[in-house]
TrEMBL record:
It comes from Lasius platythorax. GO terms for molecular function: hydroxyisourate hydrolase activity. Residues 29-143 form the Transthyretin/hydroxyisourate hydrolase domain. This is 5-hydroxyisourate hydrolase. InterPro entries: Hydroxyisourate_hydrolase, Thyroxine_BS, Transthyretin/HIU_hydrolase, Transthyretin/HIU_hydrolase_d, Transthyretin/HIU_hydrolase_sf, Transthyretin_CS. It holds the Pfam family Transthyretin. Substrate binds at residues 37, 75, 141.
Length: 144
């Protein structure tokens, strides 16, 4: 990958494939991408069918951006509602509605909801927020 800045101050990256064809990407137009992957470590399986909501904190309140559900692989590939949320850094929250998921699997859990709050400092980066889940505990981290 080669990076360069043009006369207007815009950063570009050039990616070369095996046929030596080059694709140019304007780094200033790169989009924020927020994803999650939920694994039920008590069952050793992806947590498919789990309701997930993405919020952004603005004007002292949480604004719902997107409601989604994990696929059979436990993933939500893109939680952003549209490109307007991409333009500025900010505080986000993913709400995992685990109560219904555990009920469907005939399991009691002490956590009906799990909120993961995180700060987006560079809206051109990918923010992957995995959740490792069990009925009595959970952990999360910034993934890749």
């Amino acid at each position: 990958m080669n990076a360069r800045r043009d006369d207007s101050g815009v950063d570009h990256c050039a990616f070369s494939n095996r046929q030596n064809m080059t694709t140019s990407v304007n780094l200033n137009e790169a989009k924020l991408n927020i994803t999650t992957h939920v694994l039920d470590i008590s069952r050793g399986l992806p947590a498919g069918g789990l309701a997930v909501c993405l919020y952004k904190f603005e004007n002292d309140k949480w604004i719902l951006l997107k409601e989604s559900t994990t696929g059979s692989n436990g993933r939500c590939a893109d939680l952003l509602q549209d490109e307007r949320e991409n333009s500025v850094p900010g505080r986000f929250k993913i709400e995992f509605r685990v109560n219904d998921y555990f009920r469907r699997n005939a399991t009691n859990s002490m956590y009906p909801l799990i909120d993961v709050v995180f700060d987006v400092q560079n809206p051109r980066e990918h923010y992957h927020i995995p959740l490792l889940l069990s009925p009595f505990g959970f952990t999360t981290y910034r993934g890749t």
